[in-house]
Structures are given as C-alpha cells and as structure tokens.
Amino acid sequence: MSDLDQMSADLLGRIAGASDLAALESERVHALGKQGAITQLLKSLGGMSPEQRQEEGPRIHGLRERVTSAIAERKAALEAEALERRLATETLDMTLPAEPRLQGSVHPVSQVMDELAEIFADLGFSVATGPEIEDDWHNFTALNIPESHPARAMHDTFYFPEDEGGERKMLLRTHTSPVQIRTMVKEKPPIYIIAPGRTYRSDSDATHTPMFHQVEGLVIDRGIHLGHLKWTLETFLKAFFERDDIVLRLRPSYFPFTEPSVEVDVGYSIEKGKRVIGGSEGWMEVLGSGMVHPKVIAACGLDPEEWQGFAFGCGIDRLAMLKYGMDDLRAFFDGDLRWLRHYGFSALDVPTLSGGVGA
Amino acid sequence: MKFTLSWLKDHLDTEASVETIVDTLTRIGLEVESVENPAEKLAPFTIAHVLTAERHPQADKLQVLTVDAGSGETLQVVCGAPNARAGMKGVFGPPGAYVPGSDITLKVAAIRGVESRGMMCSVRELQLGEEHDGIITLPDDAPTGENYAAWAGLDDPVIDVSVTPNRQDCMGVHGIARDLAAAGLGTLKPIAVAPIAGAFPCPIEIRTDDPEGCPAFFGRVVRGVRNAASPDWLQQRLKAVGQRPISALVDMTNYVMLSYGRPLHVYDLAKLEGAIVARKAKPGEEVLALNGKTYRLDPSMTVIADDAGVHDIGGIMGGEHSSVTEATTDILIECAYFDPEGIARTGQKLALTSDARSRFERGVDPAFLDTGLAIATEMAIALAGGEPSEIVRAGEPPLGTKIVEYKPDRAKALGGVDVPADRQQAILARLGFDVTTGAAWRVTVPSWRRDVDGAADLVEEVIRIEGLDRVEATPLPRAPGVARPTATAEQLLERKVRRTAAARGLNEAVTWSFIAEAEAAPFGGSAWVLANPISEELKAMRPSLLPGLLAAARRNIARGADGIRLFEVGRRYLADGERPTLAFVLAGDRGPRHWRNGKAAGFDAYDAKAEALAILAAAGAPVDNLQALPGASGVYHPGRSARLSLGPKNALAEFGELHPAALKAFDLEGRTVVAAEIFLDAIPQKRGATGHMREAYRPPALQAVKRDFAFLVPLATQAETLLRAIRGADKQAIVGVSLFDVFTGQGVPEGEKSLAVEVILQPGEKSFTDEELKAISERIVAAATKVGARLRD
C-alpha cells in the first residue's frame, strides 16, 4: 500500500468517525484546510517533474475528490440525524380539537323558494313579486270577490284603518293572487309566472300562523286548458319531491277567481310512520287551482275570448314540511338557532337542475 | 252541512251504498269532511228485560238485577240507578262492550262482593244526550234481545259535507240529492206538496217598505196551533245533525231550512201589533235576538217590524219578543227573499252568523217562496194542528231568467275533457238546466243556481259531473333550446346576499312582518298599523328587521345559546313602499371558548362592520368608496355606530353597537349586541349589458414596494381622514394604504394616538429611484400634516 492509499484510508476513516458537525469540520480542516494534508500534497505538485506530476497529479486530485464527497455525505448524514433528533422533541398533541368553523344556514323557506324558481325556470316560468300591503281591489275585487262576497269573510283579512276619504282600503294580502292581477295588467300575454312571498291571515293555531308563505302560478296564453294545469302540477311535484310516483287527484272546488276551480290532492304513502308524498295510500290537499275566471282576465284589460289560462296557489311552508319533515309550522318563525341549524341548508346547497333541487 | 243517509233518501231514490255516496260527493265537489254512524259504536248494546231487582246485600244504593238480554240465559247485573225496577225494559251492555260516554270497556267484575255480568246504560253513557239521572227506560213493547241502535233508528250514518260558498243550493238536502242524481246515483224525488187553500183572509197586514233589502215577503197565519215538543223522528234527525230541538214549530222551520235550503221564520201572532213590515231599521233601534243578545241597528239594515218595534233582523235572526212558545196559539209564517249583499253587510256589521244568514247571503232560490211556504204550512199543521189563512204576497222575488250561450266544444277547450255533446246536454238537464241546442246552445240557468252566469261555469258543471279524473295531463308548449334565466336583478341580489351571509356563519331566520308599536318607535314608528291585529305584539308593520331579530336573539339566550348570529332577508314597510333589506344581529360570544384563544370574546361594532362590508361587497356595492358617517338610527349607540354611505345622502347600510336603552326594551340589558341593516334597494346596480368578457389581464411588470409610516394625530381624528389624505398624496404610485396599528399609551403624548400605516407603491415601466421614493414619502408626510398628523419620531 502506497503512502497515498494509506492516507486515503486514514482520512476517510476519520471522516466516517466524526460524531458531529464540529468534529467533521475539524476533519475537513485537517484534510483540506490551508495546512491540511491534501492541501500540502497539492502544493507539492509544483515541485515535481512533469512526468512525476503526470503520474501523481490525478492520484492526488482523486484523493481530494473522494475526501470532499465523503465529507459532504457525512455532513448530510449528520444533519439528517440532528433533524431527526430535533423533530423527536417537537411533537404536538394532534388530538387537540381544531377551531370550529362557524356554521351558517339558509332558512328552509328561502331554500324551497329557490327550488321552485329553479324548477319553474325550466318550464319557462319567471318569478314575479308584488306588494304585501295591498289594496282591496287587487286582493279581492279584481279577483271577482266583490265587497259582500262570503269568500271575503273566509279570508280572515288584516286591515289597515281606512283613509279619510274611505276610498282605498289597504290590507295585508291574504294570498299571492294579487300578483296575478298586477302581472296581467302590466304585461302582455303569453304570461308564465310564479309569485312566491309572504301572505297574511288573522288565524293562529297549531297549523296556522298569521303570516305564512305562498306561491302562486299563472299561465295566460292561447288554448290553455285544465289538462295543461294537471301536467304542470304533476311535473312540478315530481321534480320538487324527486319522485316519479307522484299521483294527483283533482276535485271540483270553488274559488271566485277561477272557473272551473279545482282542488288538487296528492297521493301519499306511509314510510317509517310518516306521511311521504308519492304513491296513493291516502290523499292530502296541497293546492288550490283552476282556470282563470273570464271576469278576472277582463278586469285586467285582456280579452277573455282570446286569452285563457290557469292559476294555482300553494303553501310554501307546507311544501317544505312535506319534503323535509318538519311538523310544526310555528317553529318556522321563531328563529330558534337549534331549529335553524337542524332544518336549515348550507350556503353551498344551491338548487340546480343538474345537481337536483333537493338538498 | 250535515245530514243523515235516511234524510237523503227522502229526496233521492237510490240503492247506492254509503261509501259510494261519500266518494261521489267528494268527486263532484261536495267534499265530505266526515261520515259517522252512531250505531257503529253502539253495536254491542241490546234491548234487555229486567226480570228481578233486589237490594244489594252490601250497599244501600245498589241493586242486583237479573236481566234477560235475549241470549237465553239470565244474567246478574249490579246497577246503581234509582229507576231500575223489575219488569222494565232498558239498554244492556255485555262484558267486552266499550261504553263511549264513560270511556270504559265492560268486563265481568265483582261489585261489593256480587258478580256483575254487564251494565244497564244511561243516555249519557251511550252519548245520546246529557241526562244521567237513571238508566234508559224503553217502552214495554221494545223487543228483548234486539240491537238497540237499530230499533231506535240510530243506524243512520251522518254525513258532513263542506259546501263551497257558491253552492247555496246544496245547503239543503234536496239540492245535494239533485247533484247526486245528476252524477248517476239514483233519481231525484220530486217535491210533493199541493197548494193549501186558506180558510180565511190573513188577519194581519204584511208589507215590504224596503223593496231593495227585502223584495218579497210572503206570509200566512195558522190559527189554533198547539206547540208542544216535536215528535221523536224529527227530534232525532235534528239532533243527529247537531241542532237542538226546541218546539214543534221552531223545529219545523229548521227542518225545512235543512231539507230545502229555505229559511223561514214563525211569529207568535198575539205578540204583534198592527201591520208586519219589512223596512230599514231606524237609527239606534235595538232588538233582543233569539241568541239572547241585544243588537243595535242602523238604517243600512233590513228588519221586520210591527207598530211596536223590530221583531226580526231580516234574514239573519228572529227576535225574542215575538218568538213562539208552548203557549202560542196563532202563528204567522214568514217566507221572504232578502238581498244577499244586504244580508252579508248586515251580518258583517253585527258580527252575527246564523244558518239563515249563511243561506240568504249566498242567495236562496227566488222561485221557491210559494213552495217553501206550502211545505211549511203543511208541516206546521201536521205537527201542531190549526187552520191556515190565505197567503199574502208582498213584493216580488227577483225572478229574471238567465240564459247563457254555450258551445259544447268549450268542455275540451277549457276543461281539457272531451265530452260528447249529447252527454253534456244530459248532464245539464239533470242539474236542472234547460238546453236549446244549435250552433251555439242557449242554456237557461235554473233559479237556484245563482252562481252560474257564463260558459266557463257550464264547463265546470259538465266536467265535475263527468269526472275530473278524465282530465289528461297535457304538456305545456315548450320553447326550443335550453331554458332561459328568469331571475330578475333584485332576485339575484337577494340570493347573493343571503348565501353570502350564510357562508359567513350567519343563520337565516324568518320573523314576523308585524311587531309591537313600541318596538317600532326607535325607528320613527310604523307607517302601517293594523286595525284588527291578532295581538298587540303583532300589530305594526316593521320599519326595521331588527326588532324581530332582537326578540329572536332574546329567546335564544333564554334557551342558553352562547353565540348568536342571526340574519333575515325581508321587507321593511315604510310609508312610501316596501324595501328589501338584509339585517343581522350578533350577540353573545364571537366564537366558542377554545384552547387556542382562552376565554370567549364578545362581539364589537367592528364585527358588524366586517359582516356588513362583506355582504355589501357580495352585493356588488363599491365598498372602497363607502364612507362611515354618523347618523345611524336611534337603536344604535350614538358613538359606536355609523351609516355606510355613498356621499352624505345615500346610505347603503347602518351598523353598530345597540343603544343600552334599546337593549333594555328587548330584555337584553347588560349585554353587548351589535347589528346592521343593509338597504338592498339602495345599492347601485351595474347598468346595461356588459357581456361576459373580462378586461385583459396585465400584471405589473415590476414588484411593488412597501413603506411603513407612523403618525401621531389628535384622539378625535378619524382614521379614515388620514388614510384618505395619504391615498390622495400620489394617485399614480400609491395603490394601497392600510392601517395596521392603532396605539395610545407609553411614548404617545396625552390626547393623541399613533396610527401606523402601510403604503404600497407600484412602479410603472421602471423601478423607483431613491430620489423618487424619497419624494413620494415627503408628499405622503405633507398630505398627512395637512389633516393634523405628524410623523412619529
């Protein structure tokens, strides 16, 4: 073994044996520092003959490279060990609870209104609105409910004091039907609208609140008949409840503003002790509807010989209850956070046709 | 409208079962609310013969009976009724029978040591009446062992139908029978009553001085009546439908009303003075009505009066004074026609409902006065004897004939059901319409169908009898292509703010639109106060959404909620309109207690500001240009609230901490509650169609430079004043100014505060030189100095 081989083994051994970064640094200085063994050898190259240099040069440079990379390797290894030791001391209790995210919610009535808008948009219906503080004419007279009509008494109307002239009686709308009137007065047919909103009746018990929500539907076009009404309601309810086994039963009824008037029952079945829409084990009343009365069409300035159509009205709160299973209407308006979180919807539950309108 | 099956069968010749009848009623628009057969719950009870009655050995008030209930064996029954005696017939309930009046199921039991195998029942125990002073006593010829209910004629289902307001004709059994006959359920029995000749001239003058309110007043006297209790069959029918039997003559009027929808009134002739006249009431006139209440009348109301005063609120309720009693010997029967609108108005004004009113205000058959009077006379004489006078007919009922033009293809065009013309004609004929066919039919409307006056009404008649189950679902015409968006800008805005608020952790509530008047006061009061509120708490239309939310917050606190973040999207009701608004209330803890931040912190006004700005930003409001100006409404703490405004007039929102007085009013004293209201209709919306294309993306070529400054300003100086001044110092270079520290205390002179600001400078084509940076800094300091700030050393 030449001196150089001996030296190489010696240096590499010392580097491998360096136990920490400081020891390794002193080995680097020992080998490659200004006075280092390899530095000395490199310096000695100057005094050699060209032939000698030719032979010794590569050997010395080779040695330098081996030692340099051995130091680098050892350094990386020592650093990795040091990191591992440090990390071993840095543990946290990963079972500590994260900060809770505030859970906001959308009220079921708003959600159902969005669902309705989505479904009816696909059927070509736009959303119309109107005032809740209405006059007598839009809420009753134009809807073929004259002053002394017994149906007025049935509406349990909230009134405002009469103005001095007693000309214009203001009241809280008892249904969303005045929006029909406002739309027909303002727009030219064909008209395809739904009108959701707050409605009021002076009534309060387990199933009635003095304020509630209704959605009105109105179609005025040429050649519209009761069959179109049935199809529209069937199509809407199938989409809303996301069930194909929706069965409707039409019953003759009476509303002053429609003729013929039709009460619509929907078949239900009992699932886990609850009434669920779909099937036909029993019937429940969900909608009032009919063909818009010619007098109403005429009152809005349209020719009932040319235009006809249908209208329907339905409780939104009730639709929500039937779909999502709430059983107390009064809780809708109490603002109980527990209820709102339980029955409310995430901000991201936006009803879409592709994703389904139910959340 | 209630009636019994046997009553119906007096008018309808039918073999149909009660189930078929009920289904058909609902199918043709006479919705059945309930069907109840009183005999069903009495099925186990039989007629029994009491053989012996001995005193109970252990109890003075009890007897031990032996009873023959027809089973062949003699049963021992312990009985507490004082009227139980050997030889009587009564009603027996065997062990296992459910006794509806006492809600018990009988079983064999020992009563004071004596075995009892059943029970002899009282009227109340069988829910047949209120009496409970003894067991039922039946006539001696009652057949032992037979079913009691069947023997007593109780096996007669009671059907309750909800009659819609347009169908006055169905407020009598005869009209219902007519509809059922039209639907193919049998034959309508004709009304068989012969005119009854008067035996003497009517001894009292009958007049109508109010031809508008009472166009026709027919009447006649019956002399020599004996007005006792009416017979069992009549009492039973009236009781079955919930009417209280009173006396033969009163029961007669009710029976005719229920059978034919024809209200009548009977006066005690002896109590009348002079002529009996239909007239308008005089101001202040009063009458004690049959319900025991006194009504004050006004000249808009039609009354029936004699020389002495008012005897009847015409068509609504009779008076006490001239009502018939058991002592009555001579009567006047009134059969009149009252104007429906007048009846409705009077009834509403007096808040008085009655069976007569509900029929007259819907419009009774004007062609039925003579028949009605004949039926009444015949029945009065049959029940109470006497002899009738001649008839007086004062005025004339409105008998105008209505003819509707009709084309049978309307059934398909409007009703969606194809019904052959001859079939339509048959249906209309069965309902009493007279059809003259032709290119357009001429259909004469029967006098009792006041509700029918157009072709659409006839379509309804045809298709409801034909069956709405024949309506085939027909798809609406559909525009080609994908459905177009339909939401308006306002609707989109509401959806955006609602879901933004929910995404930020707020819970949407829906609260009443009406609040207490006092709750509206801090907002300037309510412009709309109800005349007939349901309660004082729900009386005034809200001028703000906050009262409803604060009340909800209070209820949640009472339930133990820690952090409350409620919002509502709804309308404020102002004098000049209804304004779409989003409001929120933050109360309690900002977040739950957590190990990272120690104790829970409360909300402050800046939380309200942050939420308000986030929601405004989502609504597309130019939030960078908004100024926080003082002047929020009185519910807010005056020093800790502001309006977020575009210029001094246009406030888009208000936010802040609530005023302690407001908190006190809502029982939230001692808490910090913050809130905001965002006025959605005040937010300027982008005008015109801008399309979907965005501006080209051009990131700055060079990196921005940040410089920090600290200024001392007087305590009262608002931060916004300084920030605005700095922003204006170099509008080209300065692209961002943000406040990152507010400090008072050590190192800051008394009466001053330190505001530390980071300024972001954006170079254009070339990097800033040191000189340029220095110059900008100097301009910033100069601008700040102008608003009273000085650079902190």
Structure, described:
The complex is a heterodimer of chains A (359) and B (793). Chain A folds into two domains: 85 residues; 234 residues, BirA Bifunctional Protein, domain 2 (2-Layer Sandwich). Chain A contains twelve helices and ten strands. In chain A, strand 7 and strand 8 form a beta hairpin. In chain A, helix 1 packs antiparallel against helix 2, helix 1 runs parallel beside helix 4 and helix 2 packs antiparallel against helix 4. The longest helix of chain A has 40 residues. Chain A is rod-shaped and about 130 Å long. Chain B is of the alpha+beta class. Chain B folds into four domains: 112 residues, Nucleic acid-binding proteins (OB fold (Dihydrolipoamide Acetyltransferase, E2P), Beta Barrel), CATH 2.40.50; 190 residues, Phenylalanyl-trna Synthetase, Chain B, domain 3 (Phenylalanyl-tRNA Synthetase, Chain B, domain 3, 3-Layer(bba) Sandwich), CATH 3.50.40.10; 194 residues, 2-Layer Sandwich (BirA Bifunctional Protein, domain 2); 87 residues, Alpha-Beta Plaits. Helices cover 25% and strands 27% of the residues of chain B. Chain B is built from 20 helices and 42 strands. In chain B, the strands form twelve sheets. Chain B has a seven-stranded mixed sheet with strand order 30-33-34-38-37-36-35. In chain B, helix 14 packs across helix 17 and helix 19 runs antiparallel to helix 20. The longest helix of chain B is centred in the C-terminal third of the chain and has 17 residues. Chains A and B meet through helix 5, strand 1, helix 7, strand 4 and strand 5 of A and helix 8, helix 11, helix 13, helix 14 and strand 30 of B.
